Every structure is written in structure tokens, then in C-alpha cells.
Amino acid sequence: MLSVWAFTIAAIIAGIGILINFKSLINKLIRRIEQNDFHFHGVQKDQSKYFIMVAVIEAIPIFLFVLAFISMEDSTVSLSAKIIPLLIIIGIIALCIAQVLSANHDIPKDKLSQQEKGLIRTTTFVGLGTILAIPIASLILLFIV
Q1: Which is nearest to 59 in space by CA: 18, 1, 105?
Q2: How far is the C-alpha of 27 from the C-alpha of 46, rounded, in Å?
């Protein structure tokens, strides 16, 4: 049972933590666009800081994954005991997707060229992947336990 909650807490920490970091990245990009300072090297610098923070944030969920695997018992946990953690993880995934799409909608794209719009789109999808990696892994591992 401890492993089920460890996966759930890992999903919450990673999902919310990386989402906050992603929204900070988007705010930096919006500021660059408004100041007409949107160029590849500046965006690359902001993305590098984003990925460093993602690695720092993911350290705790990875530790929780290890803890969950160590504490797994030979018997399986019943489905009824997994329902609340399952709903929490699905809620985190839905919240993160909604917030990423909302943040993407807030970017003023009328001032950008096609190449810059492509850079924003790529940043959004990379952000979505990094945000959802641990919650989706937790969801899958929840069914394995």
C-alpha cells in the first residue's frame, strides 16, 4: 500500500513542480516577446535553465519510485485501494494539460515569425512531455503494483 501512495506523491510533486517551472519559462518567453528580445540564443538559455530545474524537481519523485519498489510486497493491492490514488493522478494529468494549453494560449503570437512560432510550439510540446512523464509513469506503475 505504501508503494501506491509513493507513486501518487511522486506524480503530484513532479506534475505540479515542473508545471510551475514551465509556466515560469513561458512567462520569460512572453517577456522576451514584449521587449522585442525574442531570439534563439535567449530562448536556448531559458530552456537550459528549465531543464536544469526539471532535473532537480524530478530527483524527489525518482527517490519515491525507488522507495516504492523497495517496499513492494509479494501480494498485490486491491483495485478498490487504488481508486483514490488513481483519481488523484488522473486529476494531476488533466490539470497539467489544461495549464500547459492555457499558458500556450497566453503567448502573443502575432508578433512572431513562422520560425519563432515553431520554436514556441516545440517548447510547449517538450514542456508537456517533461511535465507528464512522471505522472504517466506513476499511472502505469499503479496498475503493476
Answers
A1: 18
A2: 11
How would you write the pLDDT of the chain (145 residues) with one tens digit per residue? 788 899 999 999 999 999 999 999 999 988 888 888 877 888 889 999 999 999 999 999 999 999 988 888 766 778 788 899 999 999 999 999 999 999 988 888 787 788 888 888 999 999 999 999 999 999 999 888 7
Q: Which of 5, 12, 18 is nearest to 67 (CA)?
A: 5
All three cell numbers of 74: 509479494
pTM of whole model > 0.85?
Answer: yes
**DSSP letter at 57?**
H
Q: CB–CB of 27/108 below 8 Å?
A: no
Is residue 138 within 8 A of residue 8, CB to CB? The reply is yes
Would you list the domain boundaries of the chain?
2-144
Cell 500500500 sits on residue: 1
